[in-house]
Design a protein that fits this description.
Elements: E1 13-17, E2 24-28, H1 29-41, E3 46-55, E4 60-69, H2 74-93, E5 100-107
Parallel strand pairs: 4-5
Antiparallel strand pairs: 1-2, 3-4
């Protein structure tokens, strides 16, 4: 039963150093991922998404869990993540790279269907 629970990496508050005259900015990792998760949950077939931004700014990692409908097009979701969501998150965090993992969980819930 313990194997069913996803271990989430430890999150940090990132300190973004400017130059000495400008000081620094602190950013909670969960705050940084909130807009990104809002975008991902709007993808067709996605019911819920969560993400943990862990590591340091110099060595970050993103772990995602996405709950989808059983018939969701995972290829399309992956494409949208690669082409839109993740590049915007990297840009917002001012990162060149952001290693990530995605775990999909299929749900029996269905989305709203047009009649």
């Amino acid at each position: 039963m313990a194997a069913q629970f996803t271990r989430r990496p430890k999150t940090h508050t990132w300190r973004i150093e400017q130059n000495p005259e400008q000081g620094s900015t602190e950013l909670a990792a969960n705050t940084a991922t909130a807009p990104f998760l809002g975008e991902v949950t709007a993808y067709p077939g996605v019911h819920h998404a969560r993400a943990t931004l862990a590591g340091t700014r110099q060595d970050p990692t993103l772990a995602m869990v996405i709950s989808t409908e059983r018939d969701a097009d995972l290829t399309t979701i992956n494409h949208r993540l690669d082409a839109h969501g993740l590049p915007r998150l990297r840009q917002a965090l001012d990162l060149d790279t952001l290693p990530f993992t995605v775990e999909y969980r299929l749900t029996t819930h269905t989305g709203v269907r047009a009649r």
